[in-house]
């Protein structure tokens, strides 16, 4: 999945982003409301983690603008206030979930994953296709019961391919949803990652290259 973290507390935002990336999640950052909207207009995020008190454009206005613009991203609103009235107000603005600071990182990850599932067509919590089994919550993948030692990007690519349920996934979509905006769209990143993933999955090969279209399982 791909997540946008919006918080003017730079150190906190970068810490959260680093933790999410270790969970295999692609993360972009914005430190004010206007930049957040610019990022959201360009990139297809699954979840926006949105601090409410932002400079340039308040988090409430960012949330409202995302909804008016028809964004498919789910919004997890953050605030330093844990008052019920604030939570109700945030949800009334159209936020999908609400989390008060300080928060436990494990809870943040769980809420992001739950929201991301709602942003996509419903999929089972554990993905199974043929001999492959992938558990996104536990970050485990196996083939014929053999555990696979996958990098975060390899895991993300396999999760996207399995979630597509046999449909072709383009290299552009893999790049957009498994990497962040720092990825070079003209690089061979996706091709190299798929090649490594194929080697780790072993024989017979299960990832098919569809000429001028992408990849599928």
Give a count of the beta strands, DSSP E runs of length 2 or more: 11
CATH C-level category of the largest domain: Alpha Beta
What integer is the average pLDDT? Answer: 87
Instruction: Give the strand line-up of the largest sheet.
Output: 2-1-3-4-5
Strand content: 15-25%
Shape, please?
elongated
Summarize the structure.
The protein has helices at 10-22, 33-42, 59-68, 84-92, 105-119, 152-163, 171-178, 189-201, and strands spanning 2-6, 26-30, 47-51, 74-79, 97-100, 127-129, 132-135, 140-143, 146-147, 208-210, 214-216.
Could you please describe the fold and organization of this structure?
Residues 124-217 bind DNA. One of its GO terms (molecular function) is transcription cis-regulatory region binding. Pfam families: Response_reg, Trans_reg_C. The chain is α/β, with parallel strands linked by helices and 217 residues long. It folds into 2 domains: 2-119, Response regulator (Rossmann fold), CATH 3.40.50; 127-216, Winged helix-like DNA-binding domain superfamily/Winged helix DNA-binding domain (Arc Repressor Mutant, subunit A, Orthogonal Bundle), CATH 1.10.10. Helix content is 41%, strand content 20%. The chain is elongated and about 55 Å long. The two termini are 19 Å apart.
């Amino acid at each position: 999945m791909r997540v946008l973290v919006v918080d003017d507390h730079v150190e906190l935002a970068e810490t959260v982003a680093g933790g999410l990336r270790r969970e295999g999640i692609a993360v972009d950052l914005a430190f004010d409301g206007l930049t957040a909207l610019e990022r959201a207009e360009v990139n297809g995020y699954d979840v926006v983690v949105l601090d409410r008190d932002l400079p340039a454009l308040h988090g409430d206005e960012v949330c409202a603008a995302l909804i008016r613009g028809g964004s498919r991203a789910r919004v997890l609103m953050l605030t330093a206030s844990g008052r019920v009235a604030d939570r109700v107000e945030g949800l009334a603005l159209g936020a999908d979930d609400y989390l008060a600071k300080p928060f436990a990182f494990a809870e943040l990850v769980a809420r992001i994953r739950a929201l991301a599932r709602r942003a996509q067509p419903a999929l089972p919590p554990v993905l199974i296709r043929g001999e492959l089994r992938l558990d996104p919550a536990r970050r485990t993948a196996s083939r014929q019961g053999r555990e696979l030692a996958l990098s975060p990007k390899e895991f993300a690519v396999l999760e996207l391919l399995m979630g597509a349920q046999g449909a072709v996934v383009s290299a552009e979509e893999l790049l957009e949803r498994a990497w962040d905006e720092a990825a070079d769209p003209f690089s061979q990143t996706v091709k190299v990652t798929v090649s490594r993933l194929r080697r780790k999955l072993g024989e017979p090969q299960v990832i098919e290259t569809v000429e001028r279209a992408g990849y599928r399982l």
